[in-house]
Fold these 2 entries.
Entry 1:
Amino acid sequence: MSEEMKFVPRAQLLTLEEIATIAKAFTRLGVKKIRITGGEPLIRQNIIQLFEDIGALPDLEELTTTTNGSQLVTLAEPLKKAGVKRINISLDSLETKKFKNITRTGKLENVLSGIDKALSVGFEKIKINAVILKNRNHDEVVNLVRFAIGRKIDISFIEEMPLGIIDDHNRKEVYYSSDQIKHDLEQEFELVSSTESTGGPSRYHNVVGTNTKVGFISPHSHNFCDQCNRVRLTAEGRLLLCLGQEHSVDLRKVIRTFPDDIEKLENSIRNSMKIKPKGHDFDSTEKPIIFRHMNVTGG
Ligand code: SF4
């Protein structure tokens, strides 16, 4: 999957302290859950300091993260100590060569060792996230579920979000819907719909006879925007009101103009909710309308 990585000059990036202050403002406004995502959050220098600062916020109920798992062998323990309760690990293939192709830089064995380390550390919940594309990894959905069952963890299958211009595949041709994945899985497993939710967009099914739930995140086939209560802060301080739209507020400007005035920050956040769009206009048959890549905002 070719996504052009553009590195932003350090001065344009929020410092870890600025991110922690913005997180504090959100929790003072009633936000109970914060997920730290990327690109890959765990490669940022001193990132554990940020997890510790946010994990220590008195009003926060849940700190979670989404990672590609490459750093978990060394960072799983400090993440748990910092207060991370749930961890999502991106794993699109169990085949070494294909994994390398999909991730461009990743080593499968590092991620598998990272998952084992995270299991040994004892997070409340570990979940695999897999983006499934036809003729790329759709043939692995059964093995990925077996992998999750073997470790008593959950797994979510994600329909690709049409974010950013890409050149290595035609999204329309490789689109593989949640319903198709569910159909493939039902040839091997008995799936029973579950009402359980983590407050996220996944619709879960229990795999009968196991401790594993299979989730489906279906931005195309089963739009979930009507229940959306999420906003995203980019590393540059842009508060994105919707993953699928460009509505945003520049919180970096606010925090750098009024560095010691958290109420100014809270007012900006409160006001920004007035422009939160109703939902995305994704249409996988058309050219993407959102040019920023997924790795700029994270899931
Ligand atoms: S596309 Fe936008 S409105 Fe829909 S679930 Fe995602 S963030 Fe929420």
Entry 2:
Amino acid sequence: MKKIALITLVSLFVSCNSSAQKTESKEFPVTKTKAEWKAELTDEQYYILREEGTERPFSSPLNKNYKPGVYHCAGCNTPLFKSEHKFDSGTGWPSFDRPIKDNIAYGTDTKLGYSRDEEHCATCGGHLGHVFNDGPRETTGKRHCINGDALIFVPTQE
Ligand SMILES: [Zn+2]
């Protein structure tokens, strides 16, 4: 039943909303206008967070970053991922086996013609990446495939 309801919801969304900006119709604790976001973010950050873009694989310096610390949302500074949950997926995007619970929210992305679990910041709605089920089996089995440009790394203070 749950699945049918979800499909109905998704098709309802697709039929009423031709644009990909689905996250803008929801209410988030942090809400800004397009112009405000443009003024605060770099072009790359805006493209990913606000237009659900994807950076080129292996382009982010955070891809190979394994220093201890926390990865924050580049849009609103909410902590989203911890360094101990980061792993090398070989995909070219920073990958985590789990997020910081409740700081992330999920949607459905059908842009590539099939359904993917999209994930975004629960505070500002900024798009982060996608979740897949081919993560490390010894931990969660999940692979949170995240754009490095959507994140700000905050190193742990020694
Ligand atoms: Zn955010």
